[in-house]
Amino acid sequence: MLIDASTAHRTNLDWAYGFPELNPEQRAKIASSKRIANPGCYATGFIALTHPLTRAGLLRPEAALVASAVSGYSGGGKALIEVFEGDEPHEPWGAYGFSLAHKHLPEMQFFSGLTAAPIFLPAVGAFAQGMVVSVPIHYERDLADASGDVGAAIHAALLSHYEDAHFVTVMPLGEAAWKEEGLLERGAFLRPDTLNDTNHLQIFVYCNEETRTCVVSARFDNLGKGASGAAVQNLNIALGLDEATGL
Asked: Is 214 annotated in the active site?
């Protein structure tokens, strides 16, 4: 059995894509495969947010989406870690990927069910681990049905998709609920590093029915569910173990 962490095989249908929560059949595919492609960290967040909505028929496949994300510098490997942990001055935050051809885009499009890749805006912050991936949605432009309480419908679709997921949790709907439950730093800020050293991923939905807009966000550890944690989860499934073993 081989688990590949590169981008080489992620959209190859001869390999099992290592996001067990993708659909009800994905765990069985991983369990029966000898070749598993571990997802990219950014792609994990984007697919976790969008695939359930296209699968439920809410998000139009031709939706023109943008994905913005910030990751801890450990996602850049040894070279970037050396920059941020060395003695030389460095930027506190930096956007990149200005060619609009990030290596995660093929899997982001393929497994989200979109007909076109999103415009992807990644960034790195001056913190070691953690990640937030966010996707804005315009009701009339991006959704197949923009009637009724759209925010509640989006939230309900995500809740339904992940109701049996051990590692993915859909948080209460809207900023007011997050403040009530103490999910925001100083009542205002969504920290990217809250789930560090875990394999968990949290999904947040916040909408404005007056402006007809919504944002869905995923928070997780780029080295956990975004990398090695996902690999351990996939290994457990492939070996017939409890998927949470060692996690």
From this structure: no
Task: Give the domains, in start order, of the chain with CATH numbers.
Answer: 2-238 (3.30.360.10)
Q: At what angle do helices 41-55 and 105-112 cross, to 10 degrees?
A: 20
Spatial distance between the Cα atoms of 64 and 31, rounded to a whole number of angstroms = 34
Q: Tell me if 14 sits within 8 A of 33, measured CB to CB.
A: no
| Assigned token pair, 217 | 């966000």
Question: Which member of 3, 41, 170, 205 is catalytic?
Answer: 41
Residue type, 230: A
Full pLDDT tens readout for the chain, 247 residues: 899 999 999 999 999 999 999 999 999 999 999 999 999 999 999 999 999 999 999 999 999 999 999 999 999 889 999 999 998 889 999 999 999 999 999 999 999 999 999 999 999 999 999 999 999 999 999 999 999 999 999 999 999 999 999 999 999 999 999 999 999 999 999 999 999 999 999 999 999 999 999 999 999 999 999 999 999 999 999 999 999 999 9
Q: List 59's β-bridge partners, or say none.
A: 143
Q: Is 4 in a helix, a strand, or coil?
A: strand
Distances (CA, A) of 218 to 15, 74, 84, 137, 182: 25, 18, 24, 14, 17
Which neighbouring-strand residues pair with 136? 215
Q: Compute how many other C-beta atoms are within 10 angstroms of the C-beta atom of residue 110.
A: 16
**Residue closest to 129 by CA, chosen among 224, 2, 37:** 224
- Cα dihedral: 4, 10, 16, 22 (round 10): 120
